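Lab notebook, bench 4. The sequencing result for the construct came back, and we need a structural model before the next group meeting so we can plan mutations. Quick request posted to the team channel:

Model the 3D structure of this chain.
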Amino acid sequence: MLGINRKLEELDKQGKTIQVGVIGAGQMGRGMISQIEKMLGMRVVITADIQIDNVKNAYLKSGVDSNDIIETNDGQEAAQAVKSGKVVATTEAQLVTSLPEVHVVVDATGVPNIGAKIAWDAILNKKHIVMLNVEADVTVGPLLKKMADASGVVYTGTAGDEPGAIMELYDFADALGFEVVALGKGKNNPLNRDANPDTAAEEAARKGASPKMLASFQDGTKTMVEMTAVANATGFLPDVPGMHGFVGGVSDLPEIFRLKEEGGQVSNKKIVEYINGVAPGVFAIIASEKEEVNHEMQYLSMGKGPNYVLYRPYHLTSLETPISIARAFFYNEATIAPWKGLQAETVTVAKTDLEEGQFLDSIGGFTVYGHILAATEAQNLKALPLGLVDRNVQLKRAVKKGDIITYDDVVQTQDSTIWRLRKMQDETFQVNAPQDVPVKA
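Done. Here's the predicted structure in token form:
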């Protein structure tokens, strides 16, 4: 199988390109568009964003001439623009998912409900879908993957995001027959479950980031969601609810992930975890029972065993997404997907004391944060999946700070795509999750 770079070069020599449609021209989308514009055999031919200037600026910064950017919400005009070698800027996401000229759709919105709808529409239009939206994936990914499989297209997470980078290490070790003991990532900042857009504002301004996005990293939500995606792809589970959050460097990892009875700090193998001290890297802890393999690993300066660490010290987020686009197009392969179904769940926890009648906000906001549980435990608690939380979810009763919010605690004031898909998923996979959350008229 040719390397992706050579496959792209071959495609380019044939005068062909992988034609990509992107939805969301924020930080992730902008970087990806610029990266792809430099590549052979691939181009972002249409991009949608509710702010059309975001799209035009993304194209201009990538080096596209302003005369080659066609602003339209009309399908025929968009198709003609792409056929003539121009690119399209639109405010209509459905134009991206339905345009026949698009081969692969990328969701770069970061909003769970919008991402779920984009994936649904892309699959119905028989297009590969790459999700830069882990929150949507951990909520309804098993259903979307089943739909994509039935439609003959690829549903995938992205290379460059931490779950995708972890999956590359897992696939490498698993293919070689190593025992994979644990999978994990570094956390960039100390856990602060009280973090919100106000407390994160100053740091966000220094970094040129969204305060809400930064708060979702600081309060642990992003980490919980990312490791839920890894759990659903591999079947690995958190050793304890919420994971441990150990502190250590790369050299400490093999000993940390030994069982407690062997002098380590964990109770189980095949677990997902995060570490304070190895960010922005990802890791896999591997082992072997073979004497000769252990001898070779020690000769290769991989440590004394019995555990060894595979460590990748970087992940390039959306700049690596073109690799997932190409894998889907050339090989019909996913970088990461929920192959094992719903194994873990990121559930919703009150960030502060919440009152009856109060509306929840969203990930990285003021009201809730995410916490990883085994899916069976989440189901037994009737815990509300975090990806279902938005401003249309209202509390029927008061909830204390630190308590898990359940389906019984909430009412929907407006129906949404992701709620409908989650209900369909639970019915399809016969999960004992509540199906009767009322929707206010």
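DSSP finds 16 helices and 17 strands in the chain.
Will bring this to the meeting.
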